[in-house]
Amino acid sequence: MRETLGTLDIPVRYRAFNVGEVPGLPYLLYYTTDNQGTLKADNHNYAKVYNLTLELYSEEKDLELEEKLEALLDMNNIEYDTFESYLDTESMYEVAYDITI
């Protein structure tokens, strides 16, 4: 996943950046959520399932970057739901993508 997200040419990190290493905006965080599991049938595990959240942070609403990320997800046949919020205390936008792969 990180390799795929790296094609966006913005900093990408799993879960969080280390203290003192947070880059300038925009950047992207991703992490697993909920339980991971497997698709099963006929007493076999056919595929692992990962529930992930991608969080895109930007100083201003960046439709072009969001469209680029969504095109990347679409190109890789990854379904997603999006949620947006403005973080007053951080003065930045967050667009979260919930995905299952």
UniProtKB/TrEMBL annotation:
This is Prophage pi2 protein 38. It comes from the Bacteria. The lineage of its organism: Bacteria, Bacillati, Bacillota, Bacilli, Lactobacillales.
